Amino acid sequence: MIIYKDIVTGDEIISDTYNLKDIDDVVYEVDCKMVTQGGVEVDIGANASAEEQEEALDEQTKQVIDVVDGFRMTYMEFSDKKQLAGQIKGFLKKAVEKMKEAGKSEDEIKKFQTGVQGYFTKKLAPNFKNLDCYAGESMDPDGMYVCTTSSLLFSANMECQRICFLNYREDGITPYMIIWKHALTEMKV
After folding, report:
1. Residue 74, CA distances (Å) to 130, 139, 163 in order
2. What are the pLDDT digits (tens) for 130-141?
C-alpha cells in the first residue's frame, strides 16, 4: 500500500486503497463515500417487560465523508476568496521549496505552478461560495487543508500551504476529493 503525504508537513492525505484518477497531470480525483457513524444498538438478550416502557436510545449518528474521517481532518472556517488566493500563493511558495529540496526538475515545478494557478482560476474561485475547509491531522498552519463544495478540501489558515479539495459528482450524492498531484510524497507500507 502507498500512503500519500503532504509534501510540506508530512500529514497523510490519501492512500492508494482509493481509486486515484489523474486529471490533466495537475490533480488526482478520488471518489469518496458518505458513511454513518455511531448509533450502535446493544441487545443483551433480555425480553422487555410488559409493564415497563422500552428505553429510547439516543442514536447519536452522524454522516461523515470517509476520507475526511479516515485521515483525521478537522473542519476549518474560511472567510473569503481573497484569503483563498493568498493561501494558494503561500502554498505554492512552500510546496516549490519542498519540491526543489526533493530534487524535482524546473520543468516539473513550472508545470505544477501553472497547473495550480489555472485550476484555481477555472475551478476553485468560481465555486468559492460552496467550499467547506478541513485541516490535516497536524493542523499545521503550513500544511495542506482540504476543502469541499459542501466539502472542498483546502488550506484555510493564514499560512496554510497544503491543499486538496472535495466536490460532488453530477448526481449530487457522490463526493470526490481533488488533491494537488505534485504536492504529495509517497510512503510505501
Report:
1. 17, 8, 13
2. 666 676 787 766
